[in-house]
Structures are given as C-alpha cells and as structure tokens.
Amino acid sequence: MKSGTSIGQKKQDTKLGGKMRQIAIYGKGGIGKSTVSSNLCMALRKRGLRVMQVGCDPKRDSTRILTGGRLIPTVLETYRENLRKGRDEYAITLREIVYEGSNGVYCVESGGPEPGIGCAGRGVLTAIRILRNLGAFKTYNLDVVIYDVLGDVVCGGFAQPIRQGFAKEIYLLCSGAFMSIYAANNIAKGIRRLTQRGNTGLGGVICNSAGDQELETRVLTDFASRLGTKLIQFIPRSPVIQVCEVENKTVLEHSPDSIEAKAFQELAKNILNNDAPIIPNPIENLVELESMYRNHIMNRTNKTN
Amino acid sequence: MMIKVMKETPLIVAEDKCHDPYLRCAFYGAAQTVMGVSGSCTLAHSPQGCYLLAERAFEWQNEDYTKTEILCTKLCEDEIVFGGENILTRTILDASSLKNPIMFVLSACGPEIVGDNISAVCENVSDKVHFRLLPIECAGFRGTQYDGIDIALDSILKNFALDKSKKRINSVCIIAPHANANPTWMADLTWVKNVLFEIGVDVITTLTHRTSLNEIADISAAEKSIVLSHDAGQKAATYLAKEFDVEQICHNVPLPIGLTNTRRWLTELGKTFNARHVVENLIPKGENMVVDQCRRKWIELYSISRLSTAIVADATVGIPLVRFITEDLELIPELVYLRSSKNVAGAIIENELQQLDLKPKVVYHTDVYQTRKSLVEIEPNIVIGSNIEKHAIEGLNTHYIFQLISPIQRFRMINREYFGYTGILNLLESIQNEVWDKYRSKETRYKARW
Prior knowledge:
heterodimer, A: alpha/beta, disordered N terminus, B: alpha/beta, Rossmann fold, four-stranded parallel sheet, 14% strand
C-alpha cells in the first residue's frame, strides 16, 4: 500500500504480550518532536511492532514525513464535516481518520481550530476521545501509540493525553540549550501534577542535539538525574536528518545505515526496555536551574583553558 | 506498569478556603440589567445552562414576556473547539425578523475563553438586521452579579447615552434599582419615584427597569443622579458625572430604610432640589403614620428587645438595617455580614457604626460558609437574612430568623417596599409574623400550610 493512503481494519497479534505502550513526547516548540516521533515510530515498526503516531497539534504536520509529505485529513476536520451534514461523531469511521504511512505506520492527526479562535486543547481531547470511542487501538491491535504533543504544556487542554490516561509514559525532548531545559523542567512540573493522580509517569529525557555533544550529554544527564530519571538517548545533530526532512522520509528509510538511523534504533530499544516511569521532581527554582547549567559551562571552559 | 517514586514529592494541598457564594456571576448581573430595557431582545452567547440565568434575570426584572425575547446560541463542544462566531452570526441573522428595537448579545465564560469576538460579529451583521446590536462581554468569571451590572451599565451608557447640552431643571436619573436584595425591589423604586414626583423632580431615566432606548439617550439631560444600591451602579454614576456633568446625590448616606435613614435621605433630597417645605411635610406625616399604625395594631416586639442580632444581607439593605434595628427596634447588632465589598459601602457603614457607637463584627463579601462559621461561633439570638440563613442556623441556639433578604421562603403577591415609611411597616410586619411563627412548632407550621 502506498504511503499516505487510508487503510481498512486489520487484526494481528501484538508483539508486546498484549500490553500496548502509550507514549507521549513533550518538549519546547521547534525542538524536533515530530521528527523524533516519526523516526521512533519507524524504528519501532522495523522491529516488527504495530505502531500508531497521533499528532496532537492543530498544525497537523506531525506525521508529514511518514506520509511522504502529505498532510492527511484530521480527526476534527472529519468530525466537523460530519456535523455540517447533520451527523454526529459516531458517523465517523476509522477509515476516514487513520492513514497508513510508510512501512505500515498508522498515522492520525487530531487537527484543531483555525489560529486565533476556538480551543485547540479541547480539540485534541475531542480527537483522542473519538479515537478511543471508535476503538482504534484495539481494532489495529497496536503495540505502541506515540502522541506527538504540541509545544509546551501551554494549557490544561494539551495535558489531556496524560490527564485522560491515554499516555502512560512521557518523554521530554530537549537540546543542550538552556531555554529548552527550562521548558522541559516546566513540563516536568505539569507531569508531576498529573502523574500524582494516575498511572502515568516520566520515562526519561531524550536529547536532540544542537551540536555541542559533550556539554549536552553532561548537562542533560545531570538534569535527568535531578528529575529522578535518566538520559534515554542522544540524537546527534546531523545534516542527514535535515535532508530526510526535506525528502519527506524518515532517516531509517532514507539512510538506513547512517549513525543517525542507529541512534533512532537505539532509542526505540531503550524505550522498549524502559519499564520504570517515575513521578518527576522538577527543579523548583530558576536560580538552581541556572546554577546547574552555569556549572557545566564553567567546567567545560576551565577544561578548554 | 509500576510507577516508582524516586524522591518524596510534596503533596498538593488546597490552600483555598471552601467557597459557597451567595451571589451569582457577572453574566447574571448583566442579564438583569439588559432585561430592564423595554422591548429588548437578549441573546445569550452561551451553553444552555447560562440561558437559565438569563431567564432568572427576566423574572427579576418582572418584564413583559410578550415584548421581551431571550435567545441562546446553545453552544456545544464543537463551538468550544472551533469557536462560536459562526453560530452567533447565524443566530442573529435567524432573529432578523424580530420587531425588537435592540438586541443585547451577552457572552458567557466558554466563548470568552476560546476567544470569540462578539463585537466583530455584531459589527459584521449590523447592516443585515433592522435592530441595534450591543455586544456585552460579561463572562461569569469577570466577577459577581454586581460586577455584571456595572459592566452592562457601562456598555449601555457608552453606546446609547447622547450628549445633551441642555439640562432639564429639577431632573434626575435613577441608577441600579435592581441591585437590591429586597425580593420585591420594584416597590422601593416606586416609592422613590413617588417621593420625587411629590417634590417636583422629573425622573428622566431609570437604569434599568422598563427603560426605553430614548430615555437612555436622554440621560445626560438629567441634573442629578441617584444610585439606589450600595452594591452596584457607582461606576455608572461616576461616568455620568465625568462625561455629562450629572451630579450624584445622596451618595454618602444609607438608603432610606428606617425612621432616621428616611429622614436624612429625604432631607438631602429637599436640600438638593430646593424643596425643603415639601420634605418637611412628608417627614412628620410619614413618621406619624408609622407610630399610629404601630399603636393601632398592637405590635408586640418588646419580647425581642436588646437581643443580639446578626445581619446577613446585601449592602443595599444591610447597611441601612444597622441603624433601623438599633434605633427603631432596640436590637444589638453583633454581626454584619455583607454579600458585596464596594469601597463606598464600606465608608458608609464605618461612618454609621461610629455614629451609633457600635462595634459589631463586619465582614464584606461573605459567603455561606463564612456566615455559618460565624453564626456557630457567636450564636446570636436573632438573624436577619434570607432563607439560606434559616437553614444555616439549624441546630444553633438562635431564637429568631427574620427572612427579609432574597431568597425568602414567603409568597408575596404584592410588591412591598423597604424604603420609606410604608417600608418600615412592611419590615415590622414581616418581623412580627416571624416572631409569632416562633411559637408554633415546625409540625404545626407545616400542617397550617398544607
């Protein structure tokens, strides 16, 4: 089947002993969540798992590189079209909203309102609820669902994948840039609030490198340990990834033998082996966060001198 | 999957106290205000729950249902996700055949949170309908019903009041008569209008009760303004003074409830409008009527004399009641719990307590929880309040509850004022009946009713 085409409903055995893993990727806007999510989906798929990526962003571009650059119709768009025809959400079929991307990764885009109006957070919740009500996860017998969530935890609405108990493991994506760590720490605060109420936890920190590998590894290892978790994987900064973005392909398809492809495979393996999500302990004080970051910068400067 | 807690995480403890508000939200206050414009159509841009508030507001204004329309956009989840501007446009256009001269579009919490621009929608469709459109952003979260009244009055004045350079001699506008917890507040307004008529003052506009758009347009021609509430309307009075030189009068004295308050209030009116001779006739006539009635009807309030009393009311009725119960009923106010917290009202009550040499516990912006807590603590002999306090004193050693403040569990066929001299008799009558009720058991009272 071609990339980006709608698929029917199939049944297969799951590979994770009947347990479906539901993972959410959060991080600062523009940090690379969609790229990492799509490559992670592909890496998991290459391991023989049935995977679905749910883009939780009104921009609807989360699954773009899995669908060969095509922006697939969104759940809310379809829902709205049905409402316009006088039907309700139960008139939607999975065929209309679930698309099979490259290599059989299932792709869903929640969509949302036009910029400047409506509530995107509520939209994400509605879209996820529709997916659940239609029994999407059971129908496709999924092993892993990955929620690619918009930017920061900007309001309660975007916390819905966690709040509603869909996402069980949360991964924070950040680079070595201070503001991305600051954003990740803020998200960790939101996660702490939500995880105390349910069976959800922080799985770890993923580094999407901005170029300074040594500093980033040290800072993020320290940061992760302060949160009470670990640095799960380091994704190197590479022109290969950028080329793949432009070519609308995942790294595993475009350059399967590259270091970058290995990094994503490693990430998939580490996530599958990670069975201990935790309730994070975010750094409460900005000064403390700054001090942690400053220490690592100073250490590097001293070494260089 | 097991969740491991790496370090001890602090528990999230709610520090907020329990809140059990007496007052409804700003949307309700705004609806109360716009319903007072004759022949208006109110469109609640809200889910259907808020529509019920608009209906309650309609009842509060006792409007004519053959002339007043209430519509609702009945927002659902779809409008929250995608915004409700389209449905608002459709609803206004669907209503274009209505004959009402004005449509007020009130936005509730949901559409304001998701950013519906009701002003832009009204502007876009204004040339497609023959009635005027006034959008009012009055989401419930903007405050209490009194804040809603101020928001709506502000919008109405800014959009409809025209600048009339020529003032009408001996004229007045009345502001916020509906911000009054007398369950039949229209009688208070009627009393004020009658008094003004007797002293030769013309009421140009009432903001709002059965007010036409023309009356609102003429408001700047008024020489003076009177705010008939200690809870709302002050902002409108200040605006009128600043923009149209409409001087506010009677604003530093409590409203005319009880002998002294009525005398002071009437005296100030007489002074302002150069009608002392009329007022000097009205006062003794009214006071003698009260005394004569009390003598004739054998009022028996000596049994409650000098008992400790709690007043739980809005500021409009609660503040004047302090002097009334102290001087006229010889009760001792120990608690004064006011539902609102306006600065002007605070200054008036502090002045009153100083003059009366009283030191009761005064709490502003109270809620049911706070009230109940204080009543349990102090156990006053008498509580003057509403049906809510009737339940709040269950199990306490409080002998009497006088239900004077809305909501009351008493049927009133005829509007009864608290203002003025007949108002004193109305209050005494209610209190006397409650005192007698005390000597009938709950069971007897129940049987007597059914």
